[in-house]
Amino acid sequence: MSLTEVNMALVSAAGRVVELQTALTACKALGPDNGGQGEAAKVAFIARQLEACGIRDIRQFDAPDPRVPGGVRPNLVARLAGRSSRTLWLFGHTDVVPPGDVAAWSSDPWQVRQDGDWLYGRGVEDNQQAIVSMLLLAEALRKTGSTPELGLGLVFMADEESGSRYGLEFLLGSASGLFAPDDLYIVPDAGSPRADRIEVAEKGQLWLKCSTRGQQCHASTPHKGRNAFLAGAELVLALEKGLTAAFPQEDALFRPAHSTFVPSRHDANVDSINILPGSDVFYVDCRLIPQVVAQDVLQEARRIAATVAASHGVAIEIEVVQQQAAAASRTDSPVVTALQGAIGAVYGVEARPVGIGGLTVAAHLRQHGLPVAVWACIANTCHQPDERSSISNTCRDAQVFAHILMKGEDAGGAGTDMRPYRHA
Ligand SMILES: [Zn+2]
Questions:
Q1: Element containing residue 198 per DSSP (H, E)
Q2: How far is CA 69 from the centre of its chain?
Q3: What is the pLDDT of residue 421?
Q4: For residue 412, what pLDDT band results from cuts at 50, 70 and 90?
Q5: Tally of CA atoms within 13 A in the half-sphere of 172 that contains its CB
Q6: Are residues 137 and 29 in the same domain?
């Protein structure tokens, strides 16, 4: 059975996309951090679809979480053997974020509405487009009786929206043996409307807490105190300017290409206008390109703080509240080349590897040394009111995965038997 047959099954799957999206959205899979009951109902629905595809190797990895009914956050792993020992892994997260201001929606966020090629509803893009394209792929293989070149691994993870502790992190802790370093990993949870961006790297994250201690007094007699707010204000400007100047290195993979140092949160200080504040706390969100060492940034921040502290006669402490190293997959790794070939064949565009400043779930895989590409053809409406997903792009994303799955090592090469799909 050939790739062409699998593709034929996928291009005619529009009705199935609507069906699956409608059922998945109605599950309202909010995690307990978002006031919901978790992903169990949604995962049970997905498991039934996989069973109906004749997939026998389905395993559930339950992360204990007493906050939800049933007490667990389920993660599902379904596998289908291929000719080769290597596996193409696709990841979708089952949880969604709350709808936000419901009045900002044109229709009920939990009931899918169709308008032409677009489906609207909470979760349809993030991350049900991925889930649906993964299920379509399994169904097309079943329908055509195809044995793919690569093995297929479908992972449905919980808790992505609140940090992945009960999701991918748990799975990597309890089932890391599933994932081999020479397998191919695709996370279809970010992308562009033109399908031309493959995310391969993330900047490192360093969150600093800057606490200034002065001496509180009546605001009418400033000479009797030490104004921590005033010193803090100078520190904000000095840090932003000083760190930007000290770490000018650039990496063309990222936009912006340099590291960023952004003063963000500022804690409340005194209640009254007539109190000179004796304490001031603010935070700086640093995103570091892989060439910049977090320890060097911390050291430079403390050096700048010491200068400000001396000139204001205050004490300043700089602490790290969160840190995550930069993680990058090689731009020439097999998964990236295979994706580029498949995207060219299906969407008719040249996709280029990029890096981003934000952290995605892919970072967990990269920390385990697994080469992962983040890609999908999406409108980027996640977390917004009227979140939407294209029916035809969901089918095409599945075709991209089919292309890699059926061709294996050759997916990135020339000589495909497919003509690029053109938008009508
Ligand atoms: Zn997502």
A1: strand 197-202
A2: 26
A3: 41
A4: confident
A5: 17
A6: yes
Contact 355, 251 (CB under 8 A): yes
CA of 64 relative to ligand 1 center, distance in Å: 22
Domain boundary pick from 293, 308, 324: 324
CA-based radius of gyration for the chain: 25
177 and 271 part of one domain: no
Ligand 1 center from residue 191 Cα (angstroms):
11
Token pair 């009546």 is at which residue? Answer: 218
24: CA distance to ligand 1 center in Å?
15
Q: Are residues 259 and 345 in the same domain?
A: no
211 and 176, same structural domain? no
Query: Rounded to the nearest whole angstrom, what is the distance from the C-alpha of residue 388 to the centroid of ligand 1?
Result: 13
CA of 1 to the centre of ligand 1 (A): 33
Q: 370-394, pLDDT tens digit by residue? A: 999 999 999 999 999 999 999 999 9
pLDDT computed for residue 68 by the predictor: 97
Clarify whether residues 174 and 29 are in a common domain.
yes
Is 421 inside a domain boundary? Answer: no
User: Which residues, including other chains, have CB under 8 Å from residue 92's CB and lie 6 or more apart?
Assistant: 127, 128, 130, 131, 134, 154, 155, 156, 157, 188, 189
Which residue shows structure tokens 């992308």? 191
Domain-terminating residue out of 324, 348, 363: 324
Q: What pLDDT is attached to residue 420?
A: 43
Query: For residue 424, is it within any domain?
Result: no
The answer on pLDDT for 34 being more than 60 is yes
Query: What is the pLDDT confidence band of residue 423, given thresholds at 50, 70 and 90?
Result: very low
- Shared domain for 190 and 58, answered yes or no, is yes
Range of the domain at 301: 204-324
One-letter amino acid identity for 249?
Answer: Q
Q: Beta strand 388-390 with 118-120: parallel, antiparallel or unpaired?
A: antiparallel
223: CATH: 3.30.70.360
Assign residue 376 the CATH number of its domain. Answer: 3.40.630.10
**CA 160 to ligand 1 centroid distance, Å:** 7
Buried b or exposed e, range 342-369, using 16+ CB within 10 angstroms: bbbbbbebebebbbbbebbbbbbbbeee
